[in-house]
Fold these 2 entries.
Entry 1:
Amino acid sequence: MKDRIIFATETSCDETAAAVVVNGRKVLSNVISSQVEIHREYGGVIPEIAARKHLEAINFVINEAKEKAGIEFKDVTAFAGTVGPGLVGALLVGLNAAKALSLVYEKPFMGVNHLNAHVCANYLESDFEPPFICLLVSGGHTRLIRVNSYESHEVLGETLDDAAGEAYDKVARLLGLPYPGGPYLDKLAQQGDRNRFKFPEANVGGFDFSFSGLKTAVMRTCRAYAGKEMPKADIAASFQEVVSETLIKKTLRAAEVYDTGKIALSGGVAANSEVRRKFFSRENNDFIVHAPEFRFCTDNAAMIAGAAYFGSSITKDLDIEVFSRDK
Ligand code: KG4
Ligand code: ZN
């Protein structure tokens, strides 16, 4: 069969990204221009600034992805872009670029759901295959997904309030760490005592999650140290312990209920050292854990190209509009 070369863009939040992927797995290029430094001074992403910065970067990033892949646009099988969920103004930039390329080069256009793309990040540079249970933990979402096949994803549960990454970022802010706080908190926690504080684990039924109570408990503890030296590393480690325990417990339960020994991680928090350690330490002959390479955990366009290839929840309609929240 002829190789399918997908050229994808991704601009759902604060990363301007473009990538070229062959047959959903082989990554020829994966270019990411991050706006993190710009948003850091505000302590979070400012949507208007994000959209403007995407506009400034998108042509350069697209060209770089094409050059690095060593292809010409005429070689591309289809052009793909993220439809949502994400920041509407930001999404429009990457999606319209993908639509324009498809019209100019007379190739099919594919609109991709960002969350399905995070799941498909597991196929990049790997031979990992469905069925499996996927724990998607990013800055905007926390979901347990039953991936029955490449095309069929069933959401088993999700967060009722904050996403895991959001909780990391908010707690990191309380500890005075830079934005986005997840990776900084991860590092700080490695020097702390995870048993020093007993933060509460949310008691929500089924496969849903909740992290806002935990965040509030951490906030109260931080306030109790007002005017005194805060044991930041211990707070970070104790917080991380609860989050990682919750994530592994719910995921193991899903694996048991759906009788599968195959688990995949995805999203930015899948880059977390303690989350990875807890999951991978459970691996044995009957229990396989997979996670994308670090560069494919956080937002990137290679996963958008992968999702376009594998066909999970894509649209080929050029009139498709961007959306901020997943239905
Ligand atoms: O998947 P992603 O790049 O963007 C969304 O789609 O939201 O995830 C970004 C999130 C941020 O909240 C960031 O703090 C978190 O992933 N993150 C981490 C780590 N690396 C990134 N959280 C904890 N530990 C990490 N090492
Ligand atoms: Zn994401």
Entry 2:
Amino acid sequence: MKKALITGINGQDGSFLSELLLEKGYEVYGILRRKSVVDYGNVTHIKDKIHFIYADMTDVVSLIKALNIAQPDEVYNLAAQSFVATSWDQPIATAEIDAVGVTNILEAIRVVNPKCRYYQASTSEMFGKVQAIPQDENTPFYPRSPYGVAKLYGHWITKNYRESFGLFTCSGILFNHEGERRGKEFVTRKITDTVARIKLGLVDHLELGNMDAKRDWGHSKDYVRAMWLMLQQDEPDDYVVATGETRSVRDFAKTAFDKAGIKVEFSGSGVDEIGTDVNSGKVLVRVNPKFFRPAEVEMLVGNPKKAEEKLGWKREISFDQMVERMVATDITLVKQEMRYASQL
Ligand code: NAP
Ligand code: G4F
């Protein structure tokens, strides 16, 4: 039985990856941070199948202990301060977790078991102000946020430990991937959650920032399969994982309303742009400049050719299916919330 250690296990990707590895017969260990309230987050439903270890990416001693306890064959480093907007408010914490934290875990591997295989959660955010369209493994990086800069350090130190010490380290340069377990601060889940609340009459409109921003959106369940595949190869390498399609935030919102049976039409421009319900004439979407970023990544679209050819990876969940799943799940969750509130 293979053993895997996952950092960030209770996050979105950690939960889908845990399910995948358990299905494959792995013994799964996961790192949690100590909080005042015990919270297994997205792995609550499978918590009895996981060995939890309390540790923190900023504390190398705790990571060495975790490696000693788990003795893993594979480590998946998914832990991060992963919300780009927060990285301007907490630039130092972001660097300590997302940049230096990577050196901490690589050092822990070097000390405890250098034969252990390592996956680093790199990101399309490193392409930032894009230097080529589409972006692939050879596209130069130009990060646009403290998060992007910190992740670029994590990316290079992963490559450096491969070249310096012969560790089996891989970076997955993953484009945006979403799903029913996505945090509600990210734009896709914010949209599907608010669409559900509008549909059920709890909220009257959705406020967004830059609706022109374009992203290459896939589903997390497909992307964690690529992480696993990277660690099953004969040689370590870095791979772009993406769909090759790009859509604006406006397109995402329109699709989400569609899936809830609401037709929305956009008019106006800049901060005056609005989205109107075609049937009722009500304004359902407005722009709020408080969601604008100090520096924006305007457009991302990845080329997944290398991952498809070398890993045999292919996504299975289309954009349409993903939005449909997210909206349907949020409608169910909001209905549950309403039932619970009515019983109080
Ligand atoms: P997520 O849902 O925000 O999960 C992040 C995880 O990191 C959480 O479990 C969090 O634990 C943990 N964490 C944060 N700080 C930590 C620390 N100091 N020590 C230990 N654990 C810590 O993120 P995700 O969407 O699953 O993404 C997984 C990884 O992929 C991240 O590294 C992210 O930057 C990267 N990535 C994501 C995407 C995407 O579109 N989703 C794309 C490219 C790359 P708490 O619950 O305690 O906060
Ligand atoms: O959903 P977002 O916050 O994701 P972002 O910044 O692309 O970052 C995500 O993907 C990265 C991969 O490229 C990951 F590395 C990272 O960890 C994270 O998972 O924002 C997407 C776009 C941005 O351009 C933002 O300005 O949506 C725009 N946006 C417009 N209105 C908004 C909003 N974003 C948020 N969060 N909230 C809004 O109201």
